[in-house]
Amino acid sequence: MIRVATAAYPMDFLNTWDCYVEKLTSWVSEAAATGAQLLVFPEYGAMELATLAGRAVAGDLEASLHAVSDRISAADALHSDLATRFGVHILAASAPVFDSSIGERPVNRARLFAPGGGMGQQDKQIMTRFEREDWNVMSGGALQIFETSLCKIGILICYDSEFPLLGRALSEAELLLVPSCTEALAGYSRVRIGAMSRALENQCVAVMSSTVGACNWSEAVDENTGMGGIFAPPDTGFPPTGIIAEGALNRAGWTCADITLDTIRNVRKDGVVLNRTHWLEQAGRDQVAPLVALS
């Protein structure tokens, strides 16, 4: 059994680096105290690091990208230390990262830390209109599945969760982590529906984290709507709604749930339906359908 904690995370204006250390330590400590073994923070939750360079930088789209990227090495060291100290796995809030091995523009990168000191990274695959048209954030490295001491974990960052073929690429994962950052209820709903759909298709558990609250110091993350959610296929051993746990909309804090891997494996082997197994039967049936005129 794995206890998962997923965050509805408010970003703050940080006056000093120590403020960030204290905040992250408090959040991790609180989740670990519930017995959580895996902690999930949201997409772009690291944008609060831009405030360490001052309000003018945090409020400038281009300058804020560089300000956050410049702090990621230190933030990663902090997350690694917290993962080891509290004996937990942590998906750190994703951040814009300039990586010269990929290109001149930043990628949107999440990092997964293990208590033994290991770290993996996952870049967002498909950019939203804001990311590509206004912010010029680019697609990053390929999807990966992380083999951890808990289970096999895949990560679909926000908009990525809305694309079935990306989910299918991670079909061997038992947990799909979906860190998100959405301005309005409609955006949150799209990602939630995507996370639930990927859980249905892959017969796995999807764990969604959200940014919440207003950030009047940023043009990029000025408004945030969401909550934590843990979703499963509505099948044997899981809730009939597919909702294992949810927080309250726009209420900051952790949402926790226990997940039994045997339940995932049993559903994949002998569920009422076998979406994951029958996926391949779409081949040859997924051509563009002809238009049939009816009079």
Descriptive overview:
The chain starts with a strand and ends in a 17-residue tail after the last helix. By secondary structure, it is of the alpha/beta class. Strand 8 (175-180), helix 6 and strand 9 form a beta-alpha-beta unit. It is built from eight helices and twelve strands. Strands 1, 2, 3, 4, 5, 6, 7, 8, 9, 10, 11 and 12 form a twelve-stranded mixed beta sheet that branches. The chain is globular and about 60 Å long. It has a single domain, classed as 4-Layer Sandwich (Nitrilase/N-carbamoyl-D-aminoacid amidohydrolase). The mean pLDDT is 97. Keywords: Hydrolase. One of its GO terms (molecular function) is hydrolase activity. InterPro entries: C-N_Hydrolase, C-N_Hydrolase_sf.
End-to-end C-alpha gap: 58 Å
Taken in chain order, the helices and strands follow as EHEHHEEEHEEHEHEEEEHH
CATH class membership? Alpha Beta
**Any idea what the radius of gyration is?**
19 Å
Instruction: Specify the biggest β-sheet.
Output: 12 strands, mixed
CATH topology: Nitrilase/N-carbamoyl-D-aminoacid amidohydrolase
Determine the fraction of residues in helical runs and give it as a percent range. Answer: 25-40%
The CATH architecture designation is 4-Layer Sandwich
The overall average pLDDT, rounded, is 97
Instruction: Label the overall shape.
Output: globular
Number of spatially distinct domains: 1
How many β strands by DSSP? Answer: 12
Please state roughly what percent of the residues sit in beta strands, choosing from under 5%, 5-15%, 15-25%, 25-35%, 35-45% or over 45%: 15-25%
CATH homologous superfamily grouping = Carbon-nitrogen hydrolase
